[in-house]
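pinned: reference chain
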Amino acid sequence: MNTFIASRPSFLLVAATATVLMLSGCVTRSSYEEVAEERDQLLRQNAALEGDTVELSTELMLRDLELSQLEREQQELTDEVTRWAVRGAIKMQMLADGLHLTLPYDVLFASGTTTLSDEGRELIVELVQEINQQPYQIAVLGFSDNVPVGPKLAEHYPSNWELAGARAASVVRVMEEAGIPADQLIAVSRGETEPIASNDTAAGRAQNRRIDVRLRPIVN
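pinned: its structure tokens
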């Protein structure tokens, strides 16, 4: 005796339903079409679930590749970051959205300007030389304290949003000049919205004035 095993549970449901309707003598074109439509809907749902599973597996694989590359970059940067940190210039941490390098404003910019100081430009160029071995999507985020922009700067930058954005753009321009392709760079202003210390003290405000360089690998 031959035994047939349906490849999908929905086929058994359709076959059983059709058999009952035929035996009871009440099969109509409309009822058959309803059963067929239910079968097709189940098949479409199953196909969608299979597609989601493949997409999720691919995404997890890419995330593993990204994390592995970022961990290698973090290890390679350790010596340089230690050297730069002697000047209070940089700290590094791995977060969910990538590898973050934090650079205080006071090291990068001359007081009251959006132009990189000679030391700041040198640091950014050195950083580019270290990270330019692999393709990264690089977001440069500018942050400020909550002190209103002074009269001189306010002529060009009405608020901390524009000021922080201009400083981030200055860093991006130097990175491009140092060899990072423009389409891998993003300049973002976060203004005073994400303080990491209290704005009630000079030391806290100094910490809040910062540039954050976020690295994420470009995985082909």
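why pinned: Helices lie at 9-24, 29-85, 105-108, 118-131, 151-154, 160-177, 202-208. The first helix runs from residue 9 to 24.
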